[in-house]
Amino acid sequence: MSNGNSDKELVEVLAPLAGVCYLQAAPEEPPYVSVGDEVKKKQVLALLETMKVFQKVKSPVKGKIVKIAAENETALSDSAVMFVIEPN
Fold it and tell me: Which domain CATH number covers 66?
């Protein structure tokens, strides 16, 4: 996937399994990340709930969030694109 602005490939963060996506820890809390945020490798980006078990979705790379494809509190299929990151 190329963005045309640089020679670096964008990284898609995929849902590791099917479940409900949570972009924030609680309804009154701010989102884990927003578009434009710089993230560290292994930083928590979201939670995925499957059968009452929550799994942290972490960034595979250091970079900048360029797209949030998942919507809060929506069901995702296995391998659905959740985030797009420009590595740095």
Answer: 2.40.50.100
